[in-house]
Design goal:
- This protein has 487 residues and is α/β, with parallel strands linked by helices.
- It has a domain of 316 residues: Alkaline Phosphatase, subunit A (3-Layer(aba) Sandwich).
- Helices cover 33% and strands 10% of the residues.
- It contains 13 helices and eleven strands.
- The strands form two sheets. It has a nine-stranded mixed sheet with strand order 4-3-5-1-6-7-2-8-11. The protein has a two-stranded antiparallel sheet with strand order 9-10.
- A hairpin with a 6-residue loop joins strand 9 and strand 10.
- It starts with a helix and ends with a strand.
Length: 487
C-alpha cells in the first residue's frame, strides 16, 4: 500500500477512537455514521494498521507531554559552543559575556540567563538530554505553517488531511486493543486546537481530545438552573423516555451515566490539582541552600501562566493512569519568532528561563512521584540564523535543539532510555556579515531531522517500524555509540 493511503487510513481510525470513553461503548464500527464513513472503510483501516505496523506492547506504557514552541526558538539558549566563530562573522557583535569564559557561557555551552543554570542542574541530575543537531535535510522549509504541520504530523509536507502524531498513536493503540474502551482522557490538550491532534480527512469534530486549562475546570459540569438540579431533572426525563422504548433510548441513558462518571472523576482530579503540591518532597531539597531549585522542601512551580499549566499536565499524568499524551504548546511564555530585540532580558532570555525553571520543577516532581515513564519533549518549528541582525534578533534558520526532560535515574523509567546526555556537535556555515549565517551539524556528528522526534514517540509506544509513519526517518538513538555524544 502507498504510504499516503496508509497514513490517511490512520485518520479514519482516529475519527472514532481518539477518546473512546466518550462514545459510551459504541466501538469503532457502530460509530461510523458519526463521521460519515462506512463500516467497510473503518474495518479496512484497522486491517491496514494490522498489516503495516510492527507493534509490540511495551512493558511500561509511556506518557508523553509535548511542548511545542511556536515561532521557532533560537538554539543559542542551549548551544553557545560556536559563539566565538559566530561573533567573528556576525554583522552585529554579541556581548563579550556570551563568549567562552564570559559570565553567560556555562561549562556545557548553555546561555546562563536563558535557562542555562537550570539546564546544567537538570543535566547533572540526569533529568535532561539535549539534542543539538536536529536539522531538516529534505524539503528544507523555514516557513512557519509547513514546518508546524511537518513537525507535528511527523512527515514532510503540509497536508490538512494528514493525522497528527497523537492521532496516529490513538489509532494504533486502539487497533491493538491497548486503549481500554472505558479509559478516561487518554489524550488531552492544554492549548486547544493543535496539529498534533489533527484528525485527517472526513473526521467528526466530536472525537477530539479533552481540552483543559491550568485550573482543570470541569467541562462536564452543568451550570446551576432556576428549576433546580438539572442532572436530576434530565435523569427523570431520560428514564421516562426510556421506559416507553428502552432499546431506542439505551444510548441516551448510558450517556447520562458516563457523563456523571466523568463529572465525578474530573471533580476529584480538580481538587487534587488545585491543592498545593505538598504530597511530594523535593528530591533536591537542601536545608539552608541558596540554590533556587533546592530552597523549597516541597515541589513548587514558578508563577505566571506557564508553570501552573505544566503542573496541571504533570499531575494529570500522575493522578490519571489512563492519560497517555498531553499537548501543552508554549502558551504563557509568548511566541518565539525573535526577529528583533532578542537579547533583551524580557524577551528570549526570560522566556527560556521561565521554561527551564518550570521544566526543572517538573523533573523533580516526576522523580518524587516515581514517574520515570513520563517523557517531556520540547521543540519548535525550526531554528534561527546565528547572525545578529540590525534589529538585534535572528531570522528563520534550520538547526534546532530538542530538549527531553523527565525523572532522574532513581525513578523507574522506560527500558533502554536514560537522560543526562548532550547529543550532537555543530559548526558555523554561511557568509560573514550577511544574514544567512547559521550552524549545521558537523560531518562526524549524530544528525537527524525533526521527524525523528515523532519516530521516537512512536517507538516509545511500541511501534517497531516508525519509519512507515515518518517517511523513512527512524527514532533518535538515545543509546548510540559514545562518539555521538559530548559532555
Amino acid at each position: 500500500m502507498k504510504r499516503r493511503s496508509f497514513i490517511k487510513s490512520l485518520g479514519l481510525m482516529g475519527s472514532s477512537i481518539l477518546v473512546p470513553s466518550m462514545m459510551n461503548g459504541q466501538g469503532v464500527i457502530s460509530s461510523a455514521a458519526a463521521s460519515n464513513l462506512s463500516s467497510r472503510n473503518l474495518i479496512g483501516a484497522r486491517q491496514m494498521i494490522g498489516d503495516e505496523i510492527d507493534f509490540v506492547k511495551p512493558s511500561v506504557l509511556p506518557k508523553v507531554i509535548n511542548i511545542f514552541l511556536y515561532g521557532g526558538p533560537s538554539e543559542l539558549g542551549g548551544n553557545l559552543t560556536n559563539i566565538d566563530e559566530i561573533n567573528a562573522s556576525s554583522k552585529n557583535k554579541y556581548p563579550a559575556s556570551f563568549l567562552p569564559g564570559g559570565t553567560q557561557h556555562t561549562a556545557n555551552g548553555f546561555w546562563l540567563d536563558a535557562g542555562g543554570r537550570e539546564m546544567e542542574r537538570m543535566l547533572g541530575k540526569k533529568r535532561l538530554s539535549i539534542y543539538r543537531s536536529i536539522h531538516r535535510d529534505k524539503d528544507n522549509s523555514r516557513a512557519h505553517r509547513p514546518s508546524i504541520f511537518s513537525n507535528l504530523t511527523g512527515m514532510i509536507g503540509e497536508d490538512n488531511s494528514r493525522p497528527g502524531i497523537a492521532t496516529n498513536i490513538a489509532a494504533i493503540l486502539a487497533a491493538k486493543e491497548v486503549i481500554n474502551e472505558d479509559a478516561i482522557f487518554p489524550f488531552a490538550t492544554f492549548e486547544g486546537e493543535s496539529v498534533v491532534f489533527n484528525q485527517g480527512s472526513g473526521l467528526s469534530l466530536s472525537y477530539k481530545p479533552i481540552s483543559l486549562n491550568s485550573n482543570l475546570e470541569n467541562p462536564y459540569q452543568r451550570r446551576p438552573s432556576a428549576i433546580g438540579d438539572m442532572d436530576a431533572v434530565l435523569e427523570v426525563l431520560a428514564q421516562s423516555s426510556a421506559s416507553t422504548d428502552a432499546a431506542r433510548y439505551q444510548k441516551v441513558t448510558s450517556g447520562f451515566s458516563k457523563r456523571g462518571e466523568i463529572d465525578g472523576f474530573i471533580g476529584d482530579l480538580s481538587e487534587k490539582i488545585s491543592a498545593p503540591t505538598i504530597t511530594y518532597r523535593n528530591p533536591d531539597f537542601v536545608d539552608g541552600s541558596d540554590v533556587a531549585s533546592e530552597t523549597n522542601e516541597f515541589i513548587t512551580y514558578p508563577g505566571g501562566n506557564f508553570g501552573p499549566k505544566l503542573k496541571a499536565a504533570v499531575e494529570l499524568m500522575i493522578y490519571n493512569p489512563d492519560t497517555l499524551f498531553v499537548s501543552l504548546g508554549s502558551g504563557g511564555l509568548g511566541g518565539w519568532d525573535d526577529h528583533n530585540a532578542a537579547l533583551s532580558d524580557n524577551n528570549y532570555p526570560s522566556r527560556m528561563r521561565n521554561l527551564m525553571q518550570s521544566l526543572e520543577v517538573a523533573g523533580q516532581h516526576l522523580e518524587a512521584a516515581g514517574m520515570g515513564n513520563v517523557v517531556i519533549n520540547v521543540f519548535g518549528d525550526f531554528g534561527r540564523n546565528a547572525n545578529l541582525n540590525d534589529s538585534g534578533g535572528w531570522d528563520h534558520g534550520n538547526c534546532q535543539n530538542l530538549y527531553t526532560v523527565g525523572a532522574g535515574p532513581s525513578a523507574a523509567g522506560l527500558p533502554g532510555r536514560e537522560l543526562g546526555k548532550i547529543v550532537g556537535e555543530t559548526e558555523v556555515s554561511g557568509n560573514a556579515n550577511q544574514n544567512r549565517l547559521y550552524t549545521q551539524p558537523t560531518s562526524n556528528s549524530y544528525t537527524t531531522a525533526p521527524f525523528a522526534i515523532a519516530a521516537s514517540v512512536y517507538q516509545y509506544f511500541g511501534i517497531q517500524n516508525p519509519e512507515v509513519l515518518t517517511g523513512g526517518y527512524e527514532a533518535i538513538d538515545e543509546t548510540g555509540s559514545e562518539n555521538l555524544f559530548i559532555g
